[in-house]
Amino acid sequence: MLPNISGSIRDGGVPCVSWRRSVLKKLRKKIRHSFGGIALYSILLPIKILPLNLLFWGGRCIGRVAYYIDGKHRRLSLENIRMALGKEKSPQELKRIIKENYCHIAQSGFEMLRALEYGKRYAHLLAIEGKENLDRALAKGKGAIGIMGHIGNITLLLRKIANEGYPASVIAKDPKDELVARFMQELRDRSNMGTVPPKPKSLVAKRSLTSLKRGELLIIPIDQNAGKEGIFVDFFGRPASTPAGPVIFAQRTGAPLVPMYIIREGRKRHRLIIEAEIPLVNTENKEEDLITNTQRLTRVIERYVRKYPSQWWWMHNRWKSQPPQKIGVSREQ
């Protein structure tokens, strides 16, 4: 006799319906992720042979279509930008920015697939400004921590850093799809860009500190929701969970904190901008210093976003995590 795997609610077993739903949910998720990788590789060949001008217009067309059919991320993007810039810009302006944002993201996706060509064939399309700031920071012999946000095409930011010959690593979370993750890792490997996975925390700290001790550049994005592991600082007037790693590493090693970002200029060109080191506030209260310094870094990212709003990742749920609300005293007490 076959064992009863369905069980029942009364005898403490797992209901068959719940079990089937769980299996189907996992199966759909796996298919969705696998489809993403297959789709990526199926369009890679034609994209590799098309001239950049066609990719530019193709990306814009796909972005415009995606804006109308991707209701979930469109609503989140509009909600985020209204909260951040609603007092400064009209609803029409905000909508126009998000439409342009979709075009930018689609273009960036196409450019990512051609990223290796920006090492030689298209290297002239990547400019750099403020290189002396990074050179000055690295000359201190303690490595440097590159502070960045998801502005512009960050794949090309990493490509340009590699082009300039800087030994560097980036803390990066791979996509869930295995094929896409493998493709992204291959891009970084062939660009001589090291990768530090964001988890587990002990391994992140070990690899990051090792990189800095070798005098390398460690690039850390700080503009995505850090969940329970982050600290809350102000971002566009609202608490946002933010990675504390950059400041902690700087406090431990003395490595300079160097802001950097890349912007799209016209159809095909991009410019990497590296700013001067941000001095670390260092008092006897280390916990307060951690918050103060993380807030200063976040203000830099906010300044970038205000300047180039159509090139930031608005569809990310940046303010998803919120600090626990303080329980107020009842009026009746």
What does this protein look like?
This protein has 333 residues and is α/β, with parallel strands linked by helices. The protein is built from ten helices and nine strands.
Write the layout of secondary structure elements.
Elements: H1 16-49, H2 52-69, H3 71-85, H4 91-113, E1 126-129, H5 131-138, E2 144-148, H6 154-163, E3 168-171, H7 178-190, E4 193-196, H8 201-213, E5 217-221, E6 231-235, E7 238-242, H9 245-253, E8 257-265, E9 269-274, H10 286-307
Parallel strand pairs: 1-9, 2-5, 2-8, 3-4, 3-5
Antiparallel strand pairs: 6-7, 8-9
Helix pairs in contact: 1-7, 2-4, 3-4
Number of strands: 9
Which range does the strand content fall in? 5-15%
Order of strands, main sheet, comes to: 1-9-8-2-5-3-4
Q: Unreliable stretches, pLDDT < 50, 5 or more residues?
A: 1-17, 30-35, 328-333
Helical content band: 40-55%
Number of domains: 2
CATH topology of the largest domain: Cobalt-precorrin-4 Transmethylase, domain 1
Number of helices: 10
Q: What is the straight-line distance between the termini? A: 65 Å
Global structural class: alpha/beta
Rg computed from alpha carbons, rounded to a whole number of angstroms: 23 Å
Q: What value does the average pLDDT take?
A: 86
Just name the CATH architecture of the largest domain: 3-Layer(aba) Sandwich
**Helix and strand pattern:** HHHHEHEHEHEHEEEHEEH
Biggest sheet descriptor: 7 strands, mixed
- What CATH first level of the largest domain would be assigned? Alpha Beta
Shape: globular
The CATH homologous superfamily of the largest domain is termed Tetrapyrrole methylase, N-terminal domain
